[in-house]
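We treat protein structure as text, and this decision shapes the records that our systems exchange. Below, we set out a record of this kind in full and without editing:

***
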Amino acid sequence: MSTRRRRRPRIGCLSLIAIVGAALLLALAVLLRPRSLPQPTALAVGAPAAAPRTALRSPASFMAIADPRARSIALFREAGRVIQHPRCLNCHPRTDRPTQTDAMRPHMPWVSRGAGEAVLPCATCHHDRNVEAAGVPGNPGWQLAPSEMAWQGQSLGDICRQLIDPARSHMTRAELLDHMATDDLVGWAWHPGGERTPAPGTQAQFGALIDAWLSTGAQCPA
């Protein structure tokens, strides 16, 4: 008894192309179908975050401290917010190598305090003003503080005692006040350019604190 083989259905080329084309059109339609935009959500509004205190207190705000010595120390502690700020400490390094940035990283390129032909003067890179395009700070008097006035790693009390010691500060008290209150290089700390954080307050506020501190006996924290 003979059996007939069933013929398998065959799909012609035109039919195959039509199926593939239809599938592509369907996929394209799915991708391009209109979708609803996400609805805007209201931002939660809470109390504003407390801004860091950048202003310096005035000398008058310390008048409630009756003890002159305690008031003098309190005035210097407020001035210390500037003295111990990276804008000042970077040029008062503990070694002969200055530091830079708020993190007080070692200066790059590598430079060191010294004298002689092998030393690269600060003015080679630091000109009379900030160069914003290169991110290099500058001032006509750009230089490191004397090594006797190293502040990094010192307590505020130790820095205070350095300042009032003419053998280390190389200044009389009148010259110290003039340096702090009017020196343009000190004033750079409030106009550092770039993304550098300025010192707290203003140079005028800082000078007023130093003046009041000296007038109350220039007492130092422990």
